[in-house]
Amino acid sequence: MPWLTNAELSLVLAILPAVVWAVFWRTTTTSTFPGPYPIPLIGNILPAERVEKVLSALGEKYGPIYSLRFFRTPVLVLNSASVARDLLELRSSKYANRPLPKIVEMSSFNRGIVLEHDPARLRLGRKVIHAIGQSRGIAEYRPRIQHYIATYLKRMHDTPREFMKHARSLVASTTLEMSHGYEIQGEDDPLLSDARTLVENFSHASDAGGYMVNWIPFLSILPEWLPGMQFKTRAYEWGRQYNMVSQKAYDWVKREMVKGTARPSMVAKALDETTRDAIPEDVIMYSAVQVYTGGADTTSSTICGFILMMVRHPDVGRKAQAEIDRVIGRDRLPTYADRDKLPYTNAVLSEVLRVIPPISATLREPSEDDVYDGRYIAKETMIIENIWGMLRDRDVYADPDKFDPERWVDFDSKHVHHPLNIVFGFGRRSCPGRVFAEEMAFTVVALILSLYDITHDCDTSGSPIIPAMAQTTGSIMFPLPFTCKITPRDTRASEHVEKFYTMYYQAPGSAV
C-alpha cells in the first residue's frame, strides 16, 4: 500500500514520468464495488501503521466488501467473514493464490507453502505438513510436547517476569522438534536464534504494503546507490538468511537419518516417503522451515495475548479458575482432553483471539475473472482479508471492543463468525497447523489458569499499571512488552509444577 518515507517520496517524484508511462501502458479496470475515490496515478493512500483499523473504519462507511486502488493494482477489502467464506471457501479453486509482493520474491520467501503459487507444489507442501499437523500426527509427538510444556511451566515458576520469552521458547522448541526432530539446547541455541531472526524478517517482508517496490516493481532493477534503494540490500540479506537456515536444518536431519539417530519429524517422514510420492527435496525443506515461521510466533502471540487480557480483566481469570477447580479439582492438572468440559475456559481463548488476533490481514488474488453480488472482480485483483476487521464486525458482534468471553459459551463453534473459524484463514490457504495451534494454546491457557494468579504491577506510588492493548506491526502481530505479576495460586500449584517437570523433563542432546 502506498505509504512513503521521505527517501521513497523523493525517488518516486524523480521517476514520475516513467511511472506515468507504466501506469497507463495498459488499461486499468475500474471496480464496480463502492470505495473511496483514488488519487490519480497514486491511488488510495493508507497509513504505515495499524492499517487493519483504517480498513475496518472504511468498511463501516463502504460496506463489508469495498474497493481501493494502489497505483494500477485493483484491490478489494473483505471486512466480513461471511463474504470471505463466499469467495475464499465456496469458490476456493478461483481464490487459492496469494499475491506475490516483489519484496517477498526478492527475499526468496515465495519458496514454501505460505506464498507458493504452483498448485502442485502447494498440494505437496500441505501434504507434508499434514503429516504432523493433524490429530493423528500430533499424537505421535505428544510425549515431546509434554516435555516442552514441563520446561515452560518450570521457567514460568522460576522466572515469571520473562513470560514472553518463555512463551516464544515453548512454541519454537515444539515446532522445531515436530518439523525437524531437533531439540533446542537452551536460550542460546544457534538454530533457535537463526529461526527467530527468520520469523522477524518474514513478518516484515510479508507485510501487505510495507515497500514501494511492491507497487512499482521496476524499482527492483534500479541501482542500489539511489535514494530509497536500501530495500534491495535488506531483501538480499533476508533471502541469504532464509536459504541458509532452511538448508542447515534440512541437512542436519539428513545426517541424523544416515547415522540412524533421527527423531520422528516431518522432514524425516517426508524423506522416507520421497521415493514413493516423488516430493521434491526443496518442497520438503522450505515447507519444514515454514512450520516455524508460520506458526511459532502466532501461537506464542496468542499465549502472551491471553496473559495481557487476564491482567486487564482479572474477573474473567477468576471465573475461569473457578470452572477448572469445579470440574478438574486441585489434585491434577487440566489437559487438552478436558477441553469439552471447560466451556468458559475455551470461551476465554476464543475471545482472546477475537480481540487481539496474531494475524492482522492476509492476501489473495483470483486466478480468473469473477462476479460477486452482481459486481465484476478482475483476475489478479488483490484481495485483502482484514482478519482484524472481521473480528470487530459491528454487524455481528455486540459491543465488539468489549472483552466478553460469555458470547462464546453457547455459540456454535462451527459457525463462520466464531473466531476460530476466522483467525486460521479460509479455504485452500487456511492454516494447515490449526489442530496443533488450538491444542497448544488451549492446553497452556488451562494450565496457567490452574496454576497461577495473574495480576497487575504497581508503580512507585502504588497505583496499578494496566498495560495497553498494543501490538507490533507486520503480518504477524505480537503484544508489545508489558509487565505483570504471575504467582503460584498456592503450595499445591508449586508441587504440581515440580512433579510435572520431574515426570516429563529430559536433558537436551541435539546439535546442528
From TrEMBL:
Entry binding sites for heme: C431
GO molecular function: heme binding; iron ion binding; monooxygenase activity; oxidoreductase activity, acting on paired donors, with incorporation or reduction of molecular oxygen
Location(s) in or outside the cell: Membrane
InterPro entries: Cyt_P450, Cyt_P450_CS, Cyt_P450_E_grp-I, Cyt_P450_sf, Cytochrome_P450_fung
Keywords assigned: Heme, Iron, Membrane, Metal-binding, Monooxygenase, Oxidoreductase, Signal, Transmembrane, Transmembrane helix
Membrane topology: Single-pass membrane protein
Domain of life: Eukaryota
Signal peptide bounds: 1-22
UniProt KW Cell membrane keyword: no
Record bears the keyword Coiled coil: no
One of the record's GO cellular component terms: membrane
Biochemical pathway: Secondary metabolite biosynthesis
Cofactor (UniProt): heme
Family per record: Belongs to the cytochrome P450 family.
PANTHER family: P450, PUTATIVE (EUROFUNG)-RELATED, P450, PUTATIVE (EUROFUNG)-RELATED-RELATED
Protein's name in the database: Cytochrome P450 monooxygenase
Species of origin: Trametes versicolor
Encoding gene (name): CYP5357E1
